[in-house]
Design goal:
The structure holds 2 protein chains of 2 kinds. By secondary structure, chain A is mainly beta. Helices cover 0% and strands 56% of the residues of chain A.
């Protein structure tokens, strides 16, 4: 069984400030981990993924995330927020293999607001 | 590339009628398509997984006779909500995977269903 918890349904930062969106997961098997972003009236877009290679993963738009097995975390960061980063962000987990390979379990989402 | 189109984006129907939602992969052949449901301020919940030419696999608790899924081609899957009732009102989202990239899902923009 898998689950994902995103701490904070809303995060607000100033433009230029650090962005930190938290994600903790629970999985009985080695997981793949993902961050997706959703802009208004658009489908979810993949930001980055961890699939058991390097634990620090770099994604699009300057975002990165670090897989920490000991903390069961996969927090998303960006050093300097931009107004265009305002969106809803979803953390997701899937099994790395087996019959449920490819099936995603999502967190509740975090809405990021960026203030000028 | 890897664009998924969902139609309609919004539909209103009367209680007791059936509604069909289409999910198309526009520029690739989708080996697998997924259907999700999202309630307000909640996460995406996987409803079913479908592969072209075979019966969909439904998640526990999802009524397969209520939510009919057809995956007749490598670029089209449909979800039909039969005899819709107000409690079926929700946001329905589809996604698709590419051959060789089974761990990445490409999402449609979703369909908002309102049953009166």
């Amino acid at each position: 069984a898998q689950s994902v918890t995103q701490l904070g349904s809303h995060v607000s930062v100033s433009e230029g400030a650090l962005v930190l969106l938290r994600c903790n997961y629970s999985s009985s098997v080695p997981p793949y981990l993902f961050w997706y972003v959703q802009y208004p009236n658009q489908g979810l877009q993949l930001l980055l993924k961890y699939t058991s290679a390097a634990t620090l993963v770099k994604g699009i738009n300057g975002f990165e995330a670090e897989f920490k097995k000991s903390e069961t975390s996969f927090h998303l960061t960006k050093p300097s927020a931009h107004m265009s980063d305002a969106a809803e962000y979803f953390c997701a987990v899937s099994p790395a293999g087996g019959t449920s390979y490819g099936k995603l379990t999502f967190g509740q989402g975090t809405i990021l607001t960026v203030h000028p | 590339g890897a664009v998924v189109s969902q139609h309609p984006s919004w539909v209103i129907c009367k209680s007791g009628t059936s509604v069909k939602i289409e999910c198309r992969s526009l520029d690739f052949q989708a080996t697998t398509m997924f259907w999700y449901r999202q309630f307000p301020k909640q996460s995406l919940m996987l409803m079913a997984t479908s592969n072209e030419g075979s019966k969909a696999t439904y998640e526990q608790g999802v009524e397969k006779d209520k939510f009919l899924i057809n995956h007749a081609s490598l670029t089209l899957s449909t979800l039909t909500v039969t005899s819709a009732h107000p409690e079926d009102s929700s946001f329905y989202i589809c996604s698709a995977t590419l051959a060789g990239e089974g761990d990445i899902q490409y999402f449609g923009a979703g369909t908002r269903l309102s049953v009166l």
